[in-house]
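tool_call: predict_structure(chain=1)
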Amino acid sequence: RVTEIGPPNGDEVLVQEDGESKNKKQEKGGEFEKIMEALSRRFAYEMAKPTTDCPTCPLISKNGKAYLIINFHANGDVATGGDDIKEIMNRSAGKMYVDVENLYIQHFESNLTRTYRRVGGAFQLKQADMVLEQGEEDTPDGKLIVVRSTVVNYQYSIFILGETRGIRSWTYGDYRYVP
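tool_result:
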């Protein structure tokens, strides 16, 4: 079993292999940092502002817990290199509810803001809305943050075949815990 512990300065990682400690240099620009950098280039974020629907925004209380609401929208047409997922991300906006106590995204929703077209308009993705819910789950190893549910509503058309609408959903019950 290998356990990695990152120090506050982020330069070294203490690795424990079968109780034996070893130090190794941490690689600069790890996967998490790369993902965060890509997301910060692709999206603009702002705290939700108070409205008549949400007078206490950006902070709300739900089920006895405090959440911070953060809105996001795509930063225009950031280069995608032809990647379809990135093209769709360039057309997305939504909001996140961050659990203030445990610092995780409890609720995430994203909507397609404009149609995505391919092959000269023969394929058109008109709707790609996603809602993701996370929560704490008791496991033999303690509490874990897990994806409780994911729901995707979609609508697309293909020139010859016509229009298709659908909903795909997954829940935590669809998976099993593997220690």
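agent: Residues 1-16 have pLDDT under 50 and may be disordered. Proceeding to next step.
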